[in-house]
């Protein structure tokens, strides 16, 4: 057991499905519970998040989205929460109402005053986020990098994506992992690949989302392009990729890139906020954001470079010490305590809304 007082921590995330921010919330909650802290997660009833939590983490599902801030505040008060930690904008907005506990938010996407300004502390997932905060917010913020949680180990043992796709030994496989949403730029990837990738190359996209139908139309029946939907065996699939591509229009801290780095996969990414910092000094390539033609040309150039190398020499080694899970969990708990100490040293003034909740 850790040599300090255990905390009651509530994480809040309202997503029905699991993507990067949700995975981070789940793994952080599970890690804190494993250290002996009393951990709860508040989310939407029926959310996939509930099934991914460790047995020691208690899930509370809200049936309706009405008055979520008031309900989160009431539940945090009933559970005696020391920390109420929001993940993604709507959850952070609800956590801001939870007076009586220390209110933390993680900027999985970016700072928005109407979501984050009333929180007691902010976790930035990259340095650019911190540098862009209002001056007053920087005093209550810390940069703590995310990490890439391990995925399903049973699925990882069974997957051979190249065999599944019936690829010939010499075929090069380009892959991407992410939600099928305009922000992830999968349309740019498909356009660029169709225009410039060699005829024998294959593109696979792992993920689900609202843009799946449009992306299939964009692929136009090209047999080289496969949308495989949600997969729990991403870690194994990445080991089959010859080139990983992140085509996003915006990214704060893409876990998929960390997973590709862990797999030793060559990485090509758009120069969004997170990858610029993550890939600085790494053996990876950045291209301009939103340029389908430039992305396609870079894919063709990288595939030509890889084809010239023996297969055994294509895997890369990345410096990933900064993204250590244990260190990030410890720093997060330390940040909680720092904010709590600062709060204890200052007189507390509740606004009318917080007084009403307490009453």
How would you explain this protein's 3D organization?
There is one protein chain. The chain is α/β, with parallel strands linked by helices. The protein folds into two domains: 8-147 and 324-358, Glycogen Phosphorylase B (Rossmann fold); 154-313, Rossmann fold. It has 17 helices and 13 strands. Helix 3 (68-79) crosses helix 4 and helix 10 crosses helix 15 (292-307).
Considering the chains and any ligands shown, give keywords for the structure:
359 residues; alpha/beta; Rossmann fold; 2 domains; 7-stranded parallel β-sheet; 6-stranded parallel β-sheet; 17 helices; 40% helix; 17% strand
Strand % is 15-25%
| Terminal residue distance | 36 Å
Number of distinct beta strands: 13
Number of helices: 17
Report the CATH C-level class of the largest domain: Alpha Beta
Global shape: elongated
Largest sheet: 7 strands, parallel
Radius of gyration over all CA atoms, rounded? 22 Å
Indicate the percent of residues in helices. Answer: 25-40%
Brief sketch in words of this structure:
With 359 residues, the protein is an alpha/beta fold.
Question: How are the secondary structure elements laid out?
Answer:
Blueprint: E1 8-12, H1 20-34, E2 38-44, H2 49-52, E3 58-62, H3 68-79, E4 83-87, H4 89-95, E5 102-107, H5 113-116, E6 121-124, H6 127-131, H7 135-138, E7 141-143, H8 153-158, H9 161-164, E8 173-177, H10 186-196, E9 202-206, H11 212-219, E10 225-229, H12 234-238, E11 243-246, H13 255-262, E12 267-270, H14 273-278, E13 285-287, H15 292-307, H16 325-344, H17 352-358
Parallel strand pairs: 1-2, 1-4, 2-3, 4-5, 5-6, 6-7, 8-9, 8-11, 9-10, 11-12, 12-13
